[in-house]
Write a structure and sequence with these properties.
Among the domains are: 126 residues, no CATH class; 84 residues, no CATH class. It is built from eleven helices and 14 strands. The strands form five sheets. It has a three-stranded mixed β-sheet with strand order 2-1-3. The protein has a three-stranded antiparallel β-sheet with strand order 5-4-14. Strand 9 and strand 10 form a beta hairpin. The longest helix is centred in the first third of the chain and has 34 residues. It is globular.
């Protein structure tokens, strides 16, 4: 009888705490559902097939696209960029295969491996950035855009018309002086002539050139007004700056080439394609007090953030 009374007393005492915990879990779950304005589901293929809502999917996408230690306003800007890309690709669909979206994405195990002991802190921070911009996307002239972004530039973003051959009104040349302060602003890459030839042949099987004639048959023939290489002659091939960049695994297509004996030295400026939203430059501005809407509207000419 005594044990029964003690058990009953414990149940009575703990019941309010259990109810409070249950209510908190239920309230948090439902408030999250209310905050997520889209019913779009993203199907993930991997070890097993599963589906995620927009918030959970974008948390993994933003984690893959930008350093987690950047300012909250920069992370919010990146969340808006990723969401805009997702919605633009999904259109009116309510179910989208992740492989059709075109965004790099990290699942939970990838994020834990990337961040280690900082996983909980970083994941919470990025999840917050996604939640606090819920439903917000980028428009130009009332139409949803397809945005572009990169990590750090050479001090100037590129014109879409010059870089892509298409006049995209929100991809205009914009000054980004903060890039010059980045430790990733300039990269020196060195290799032998033979190594360069081997890399080019891997990417372009028709490429023909000898080490002895490489210096005489390699030259930049066209650059855009931001300083990025548009075209160069190498051996028997005419390559775009981006083709050359990817073949040699260079940080960007803004580079200079110098030959010294058997060596090739490439000085590369910035990291990424140089188009649109400059993450490093935006983060420097966020530290100066700019909010995410101001960051986006600075780098993407004429855009507006809205739902």
């Amino acid at each position: 009888m005594r044990r029964f009374l003690i058990g009953w007393i414990l149940i009575v005492l703990l019941l309010p705490f259990a109810a409070a915990w249950f209510y908190h879990e239920w309230d948090e779950k439902n408030s999250r559902i209310e905050q997520e304005t889209s019913s779009l589901q993203i199907e993930i293929q991997g070890d097993g097939e599963y589906r995620l809502g927009v918030t959970d999917y974008l948390t993994g996408a933003v984690a893959a696209q930008i350093p987690a230690d950047f300012e909250m306003e920069t992370l919010k800007a990146q969340a808006v960029l990723a969401r805009t890309c997702l919605y633009r690709r999904s259109g009116s669909k309510m179910l989208m295969d992740a492989s059709d979206i075109g965004l790099t994405w990290l699942d939970e195990s990838d994020r834990k491996q990337l961040w280690g002991i900082s996983y909980q802190e970083n994941n919470t921070k990025i999840h917050q950035a996604v939640q606090e911009t819920d439903g917000q996307i980028l428009y130009y002239g009332g139409q949803m855009i397809l945005p572009a972004w990169f990590f750090v530039g050479n001090g100037m973003t590129r014109s879409g018309k010059e870089a892509l051959g298409e006049d995209i009104p929100w991809l205009q040349q914009v000054e980004s002086k903060w890039d010059l302060e980045s430790e990733n602003y300039q990269t020196e890459v060195a290799m032998t002539k033979k190594q360069m030839i081997r890399l080019l042949k891997q990417d372009c099987p028709d490429f023909v050139c000898t080490p002895d004639s490489l210096a005489m048959n390699c030259g930049i023939t066209s650059v855009d007004s931001a300083g990025y290489v548009l075209e160069l002659q190498v051996g028997n091939q005419i390559l775009s700056g981006e083709e050359f960049r990817y073949a040699l695994n260079l940080p960007s297509a803004c580079f200079k080439i110098a030959f010294e004996g058997k060596q090739v030295r490439l000085t590369v400026y910035g990291q990424g394609n140089g188009l649109g939203f400059d993450q490093y430059g935006a983060n420097s501005q966020a530290k100066e007090g700019k909010n995410y809407e101001q960051l986006l509207e600075y780098y993407l000419t004429g855009v507006k953030v809205g739902e």
